[in-house]
Here is the input.
Amino acid sequence: MEISKKIFKKKDSFLHFKNTGKKSWKVESEKILNFLNKSNYLNTLNDQEKDIILRIKKDLKLLDDSKDNLFLLKNNSIVEFNTYDNESDKIQYLIHRYRYDIFPSTKELYDYPPLVQIEPSSICNFRCVFCFETDKTFTNKKNGHMGTMQLEVFKKIIDQIHNKVQFITLASRGEPLVSKDFNNMLKYTAGKFLNVKINTNASLLNEEKSHAILSSGVKTVVFSADAADEKLYSKLRVNGNLTKTLNNIKKFNEVKNKHYSKAKIITRVSGVKFSSDQNFEDMENFWGSLVDQVAFVDYNPWENNYEKEPNNITTACSDLWRRMFIWWDGKVNPCDVDYKSNLSVGNILNKNVKDLWLSKEYENLRNKHTQKKRSELTPCKSCSVV
Ligand code: SF4
Here is the structure.
């Protein structure tokens, strides 16, 4: 059996990233440092938040992108930072961004995960060649992995993390727009988080869903597409149709321009770089005028992770300190590489987010990783994420 030697650095997963109207991260970081030096809001922070701001200022002064573990505002973070109008939101954004970017390397834990990724649906209408939705042991209904989240479960999660967690993503294993409650879910998040992100293949995007996204204050919407021509697109995104996706995104833009022209939403087309036929320049030329950002993310080989031999990676996985996944049925998982929930630490229906994040089950996973024993965990033993 082939053993993958590839290491997938979660924090560097963008292979290509293009912002329209790109600014220099150094110049922008200096501006942010000046902003922090002048801010009076810092006096209102608690001790842990003040400490984080001191660390941010120290790192921003260095402006050194050659060292690991320094807090650097990459272009996508700078764009996000600049969408906030008031001082408190800007500072809270930096604090939460620091927890998300740095805590996985310093192995620090706060009471809540920096990001909670909630899955409205594990069902997908596509069968993309690079996705575990092609694994029939996952999609076979009899195995219990397929379903959509009840609105009441969603509300229960949101009530627990409101004012505690600032970054949430509505997407994980399936296509979120499959959920019949998707619009109501968005409505329930409105005004409660600094950063709500959605990932969608855009195939089910229509005028009504565009209104739901734009009126709820979603910060980032990521349209998943990996090619710039119909033939390659349909080969990669099986069941997909490029013209339809394109028209849905155009329609979304029409709704945005007509009814929400002041919305501070960031749009991105993001593809998985899977084959040598894909070309980033083609992607930029095709999608660049329709969205704010175009990106390629690295392909993370997931196939046979449950059966493969250990790959001998001993670096701890950053996801264990960065984000928590909550599946449609309330099951809590540390990542979506483990799409069949072997590592699940419990269920939101029996325990709250904070208790799960700090639970002995989660701690056991983190300890195995810090003690260089991830080979004792399946699928961590053959997973390349660090
Ligand atoms: S399978 Fe293990 S190593 Fe891989 S992403 Fe999940 S927690 Fe991290």
In short: Residues 87-106 form the longest helix (20 residues).
